[in-house]
Design goal:
Order of helices and strands: EEEEEEEEEEEEEH
CATH class: Mainly Beta
Shape: globular
Length: about 200
Amino acid sequence: MSDYFFITSKLNGYVLDVQGANTAAVTPIVSNPQTGAPSQLWQRVPTGPKDRSGGQSQYYIQTKLNNFVLDIKGSNTAPVTPIINYPINSPASNNQIWQIVESSVEGYFYIVSLLNSFVLDITGSNTAPGTQVISYPQNSPTSDNQLWSFVLSDGTQPVVKKSAFAKKSAFAATATPVKKSAFAATKKSAFAVEKKSAFAPDKK
């Protein structure tokens, strides 16, 4: 089983959160200050075909709260569609499947939908707690409300290795070693004891 992460916005250091820790289907996904609650902890669950190198490039993003996943509501391909928490569909549906794509900013990624290549976005770059997370086209130039880092649940910043998990965006500059995000540097956990690679190949 994969490690759990906080998925942290570059905009304000807030994290993806299931609104109100509500376990009902269709609960909105919002941006909130980090508390460590299960509603803020996420894991990547491999799905779909492997890439040419044999690595995994498509994932469900699943909450620790109730094992529901990030979902573009109603498979709606329009911009500003809300992201919700929903059970995994059977058969699989592209509105629940995501790719993690490198940005031009070290340590930050786009979370890109297989449905329409839109990305996770904090509505209107609003820095208020509880702001809805939506599906929106990737901005150019880069905007902080669409950039996310993956911070292990023990508070440490993963050491990002080049792999299928971190695909390269068309907007990304030449890859360089990834350093700690500004958020991780300024808010170190008291119980962070070591760096751990979160992007190593999944164990079989």
